[in-house]
Amino acid sequence: MTELKMNDNKPDKVRQAVRRITYGGILAAIILIATIVFQFPIPMPALKGYVNFGDGVIIAAAMIMGPYAAVSAAIGSALADLLSSYVLFAPATFLIKGLMGLFAGIMFKKYPNIKWYAAVGVITICEAIMVSGYFVFEMFYYALTNSPDGLARGAMTAAIALPFNAVQGVAAVLLGLAMMPVARRLRIDRTDEHNTIDRDYV
């Protein structure tokens, strides 16, 4: 009986793995599209970044996939940089967006019925990761590429981008909240749970 039960569970694990890979690929593609299509270069010659709506999709992905959203967030966002001529930003984007997806995914998985005001707090922390992460990266980037005065000048240049990153953060909060009802219905662990229940009662 035990051996039979273990064998019966194998198809479930395969289905769950396939579902995660499928969801992950689709969400990475949506993050890529949202980042490229809704992309607004920072209107200052000294700065090389851009504002986009990809963060809102990362938040939705975290609600759907939990911590697995880190992979979709990292790959989709980094590919957007590579395809948008921001190649040097891609490694930092991979790390920063991955951390955002991981943190949000852990929190939304731990608190699946989180209230909207608590979700605002989670998204705000994610955007703080984004803003601070890019500030540190840009500080060193501008210090090494454009600034003869070293880190101090690099920090000043990077600080100019902070308001633009903050605007992106506000957009992510609004988009994340707007997509929250749909994302909750698509939650992958909820889908797995329903499929298991259906099989148990058939």
Protein model, in words:
The chain has 202 residues and is an all-alpha fold. It has a single domain, classed as Arp2/3 complex 21 kDa subunit ARPC3. Helices cover 80% and strands 3% of the residues. The chain is built from 8 helices and 2 strands. It has a two-stranded antiparallel ribbon with strand order 1-2. β1 and β2 form a beta hairpin. α1 packs parallel to α3 and α2 runs parallel beside α7. The radius of gyration is 19 Å and the shape is globular. The protein starts with a helix and ends with a helix. The N terminus and C terminus are likely disordered.
Question: Per CATH, what is the topology?
Answer: Arp2/3 complex 21 kDa subunit ARPC3
% residues in beta strands: under 5%
Q: Largest beta sheet: what is the strand line-up?
A: 1-2
Element order, helices and strands?
Answer: HEEHHHHHHH
Query: What is the name of the CATH architecture?
Result: Orthogonal Bundle
* Quaternary state of the chains: single chain
Largest sheet: 2 strands, antiparallel
H/I helix tally: 8
Helical fraction equals over 70%
- Average pLDDT reading: 83
Distance N terminus to C terminus?
19 Å
> What is the name of the CATH class?
Mainly Alpha
Which regions have little confidence, pLDDT < 50, spanning 5+ residues? 1-6, 194-202
**Class by alpha and beta content:** mainly alpha
Rg value: 19 Å
**Total E-strand runs:** 2
